[in-house]
Design goal:
By secondary structure, the chain is an alpha/beta fold. It is 35% helix and 21% strand. The protein has helices spanning 51-58, 86-96, 114-126, 130-143, 149-152, 162-176, 192-209, 220-226, 244-249, 254-261, 332-350; strands at residues 7-19, 24-36, 40-44, 66-68, 73-76, 79-80, 97-101, 180-184, 212-217, 229-234, 237-243, 310-312, 320-322. Helix 6 (162-176) runs parallel beside helix 7 (192-209). It is elongated. The protein binds adenosine-5'-triphosphate and nickel (II) ion. The site of nickel (II) ion has 3 residues, from helix 1. Its main location: membrane.
């Protein structure tokens, strides 16, 4: 076990809902995880599972009709972010947490040159101006491997290719010198070669700067490349958590097995890419059952009646799954009872 002081981000019982006229969407429904200094923690799951809402919750970007529910905790270096006001949060986003999204256009302003935007960030965060800022901006563009940096500094975002734009966003992020980075599908829109280069760049920067990274993707192949530990997300909940090698060698939740079956390249030639039938449901009620049961090849009656809790499924307690098939080796009625008891204890705690 890592010492507690290694933990940079600690999320407990995070619940983020969206109130609509018809229902309350429980987009993130009680997730727990830590990110330690210098490590990359992944969140993986299909579209609509709640990954981006988790990221936006941490960054303080949930707006009405969205709400982070009381009882949720997000601590950055021990400070409770859910209690921060707008000003404090702006500071966190300016220098504490860096963000890289799927669409670099969202982070870049089309009417200013790339150089202007990086120099602005350098002025705000490091007090650099004039020639000093220009030199540092060039150094950062070179660091993210943008060729011909002095010239490209004077170009506008639309003059950059998709991959180069994402590199520019990373350079801008570096200008803010954060210790924590949230990447939400940063390479999804890029072709495979560029994707690999960006992942490598992020890993190099992580090593150089001791960055902690929360990495979000729907792609198990990307997770295998970049993550140290993985949380598998489904319909607002984490269904399996494990160190990355362990997850791939010994997946235990049927949903994880389904996702792994869907990795391109894992099939023998001619075999169709296997996917899980059906879609992620929109969670709009408290989980009193397994939300994956309707799509699960191994579901049995109790799965519709008992909310599965995380139980240890590997050699160590860092590998857990929320599934009524476990704990291993117990008869079905004992397993179901075990989850029922855990759910009752957990419910009592949250009241
Ligand atoms: N502003 C909003 N208002 C209402 N519902 C929302 C809002 N933002 C997100 N949701 C809902 O929250 C759920 C989770 O969405 P989220 O964007 O986190 O999924 P995701 O896992 O990031 O998916 P993707 O892989 O497509 O990015 C979805 O059901 C979505 O419709
Ligand atoms: Ni998303």
């Amino acid at each position: 076990m890592a010492a507690e002081e290694d933990v940079v981000l600690s999320v407990r019982n995070l619940q983020t809902v969206f109130h609509t006229d018809r229902e309350t969407i429980r987009a993130v429904d009680g997730v727990d995880f830590d990110v330690r200094k210098g490590e990359t923690v992944g969140i993986v799951g299909e579209s609509g599972s709640g990954k981006s809402v988790t990221a936006r919750s941490i960054m303080g970007l949930i707006e009405s009709p969205g709400e982070i529910m009381p009882g949720s905790s997000i601590k950055l270096n021990g400070e409770e972010l859910t209690e921060f006001d707008d000003m404090q949060y702006q500071q966190v986003r300016g220098s504490g947490i860096g963000m890289v999204f799927q669409d670099p256009q969202k982070s870049l302003n089309p009417v200013y040159t790339v150089g202007n935007q990086i120099m602005e960030a350098l002025e705000v965060n490091q007090g650099l101006t004039g020639e000093e800022a220009r030199k540092e901006a060039i150094r950062l563009l070179e660091r993210v491997a943008i060729p011909d940096a002095p010239r490209r500094l004077n170009e506008y975002p639309h003059e950059f290719s998709g991959g180069m734009r994402q590199r520019a966003v990373i350079a801008m992020m570096l200008a803010c010198d954060p210790e924590f980075l949230i990447c939400d599908e940063p390479t999804t829109a890029l072709d495979v070669t560029i994707q690999a280069q960006i992942l490598e760049l992020l890993q190099d920067l992580q090593e150089e700067r001791g960055l902690s990274i929360l990495f979000i993707t729907h792609d198990m192949g990307v997770i295998a490349e970049i993550a140290d530990r993985v949380n598998v997300m489904y319909a607002g909940e984490f269904v399996e958590k494990a160190p990355v090698e362990e997850l791939f060698a010994n997946p235990r939740h049927p949903y994880t097995e389904g996702l792994l079956g869907a990795i391109p390249g894992e099939q023998t030639a001619g075999e169709q890419l296997r996917t899980i039938d059906g879609d992620v449901p929109t969670p709009n009620e408290e989980a009193t059952h397994c939300r994956f049961a309707p799509r699960c090849p191994e579901a049995f009656d109790a799965c519709d009646a008992v909310a599965p809790q995380h139980v240890q499924v590997g050699e160590n307690d860092d590998h857990t799954a929320a599934c009524l098939l476990y704990p291993d080796g117990e008869p079905e009625d004992r397993r179901v009872e075990h989850h029922r008891e855990l759910a009752a204890a957990d419910g009592g705690e949250n009241e």
